[in-house]
Amino acid sequence: MLQKINKKFVALVIFALTALLACTSQIQVQGDAKFRQGNVIFIHPDGTSASHWGAARMLYLGPDGRLNWDRMSNLAVYLGHMKNQLTATSNAGAVTHAKGVKVNADSYGLDEKGKAVVAASGKPQTIMEEAVAAKKGTAIINSGIIPEPGTGAFSAKTASRLQFAEITKQIVESGVDVILGGGEVWYLPKGTVGKHATATQTRREDGLNLIELAKKKGYSVVYTRDELLKLPAKTKKVLGIFAADDTYNDAPEEELKKQNLPLYVPTAPTAAEMLQATLKILSSNPNGFFIVLEEEGSDNFCNFNNAVGCIEAVKRADDAVGVAMKFIEKNPNTLLVTAADSDAGGLEVVGVTEKDFPLDKPLPAKGANGAPWDGKDGTATLPFVSAPDNQGKRFPFAIAWTGFGDFTGSIIAKTHGLNADLLSNTVDNTAIYQLMYQTLFGKELPKS
Which residues hold Zn(2+) (predicted)? Predict the structure, then answer.
């Protein structure tokens, strides 16, 4: 009898130890999961605060709807001050994302002494430059001109953000596989006629033809949405130039109406289409890939207080988020990160009853405190009307503006996919780099 009890006791001990080891093993797997290495897609919807996303949600999906951005799994309040001021600039904010350290507001990759900013990795390279060196697939995508800092600062450094010709040159020479955006005027010498730019528009004064240089480096060059989407399946390097300047026309609504200009260049691909094409090219790279995409219209339209253009641009950014999320469904070894660095125009939604905002009557030009208001066609026009809520009810609303330019607003960073759980609560702008670096290279860096 005692021998049977001992055998049972030993069996129970063995079972318990086996279970404990299994549990410990599972904990270890979960613990190591936060260091898993994979692809990174960074989408920078420039100038967007929670209010910008809210306006897009209301207009396109209704107050009960959900954007792709809403469905991302993790979020944190974004803290984005610079080394020498509270409100971020587009260039310095991008340098912080690209290098993981605080810089002065005028930095485009250089420090106060004119030397390359040393990244949190201890190297003078940006995270994009390290990805190129590691032979990962790489891409920069912008709906604005290609030297726009939200993406340009990942592959170039200059004394001023206004050195567009030099920045464009550095990007073409950077080794990045996919370069998509506007700005043909900065690729061609003065007096040269381009696909989009006239002889009087082209701006380079050094005589360089960067398009010809790109072709010599093995890039296929495309100029329209159709050309981009029809690229051969085995294409490896692409330069897309989709407008003479930006792919949008950033001006107040009244000015665009006067000139009969659309919000976006009709032949240019959307941010979502550019990302879709890029994923087809880079996803076959065995070393993984790193993509930085910026929807710049959400900053520029808002800075001109063009409400309809601003909300359209936010929707385009959200469509790109949706493309990335669908890719992650089939490729879970990919991290999606979204973060703006400032609040463009200080947008707020003014939502009252239809009695206060009749659908057939123009809105007041200003609120009671003097803040400018926009309707769906600009100042003193009919109100926006939301998509239906769950009860089928639509609501009128106006957009109120704090002013022109960028502000320190209620910015939210989000993550989805691989290592998404590393983002929570609040996140400093330097930590966006940390999260991307850890995922891209499988290496945790010391906290900045």
Answer: 46, 299, 341
Which residues make up each annotated binding site? Answer: 46, 294, 299, 341
- Cβ within 8 Å of residue 1, ≥6 positions away: none
Residues marked active site are found at: 90
> Quick check: helix, strand or coil at residue 100?
coil
- DSSP per-residue string spanning 306-334: -HHHHHHHHHHHHHHHHHHHHHHHH-TTE
Whether 15 is covered by a domain: the verdict is no
At residue 21 the predicted structure's pLDDT band, cuts being 50, 70 and 90, is: very low
Range 300-326 average pLDDT: 98
Binding residues for Mg(2+): 46, 294
Question: Do 101 and 248 fall into the same domain?
Answer: yes
377 and 422 fall within a common domain:
no
Count Cα neighbours of 158 within 13 Å in the Cβ-side half-sphere.
20
pLDDT in tens, 235-247: 999 999 999 999 9
Q: Where are the alpha helices (DSSP H) in 64-180?
A: 90-99, 127-133, 149-152, 164-172
- The whole-number average pLDDT for the span 392-410 is 96
Work out whether the CA dihedral 216, 197, 230, 331 comes out positive or negative.
Answer: positive
**Is residue 390 located within the same domain as residue 334?**
no
Asked if residue 72 belongs to a domain, the reply is yes
Average pLDDT over residues 219-247: 97
Has residue 328 been placed in a domain? yes
229 and 296 assigned to the same domain: yes
**Residues 341 and 372 grouped into a single domain:** no
Helix 307-330 / helix 50-61 crossing angle, nearest 10 deg: 90
Domain count, the chain: 2
Same domain, 424 and 306: yes
Instruction: State the residue range of the domain holding 385.
Output: 361-400
**What is the model's pLDDT at position 64?**
98
pTM over 0.90: yes
For residue 333, the Cα-to-chain-centroid distance in whole angstroms is 19
CATH of the domain at 109: 3.40.720.10
Q: With contact defined as beta carbons under 8 Å apart, do 49 and 301 qualify?
A: no
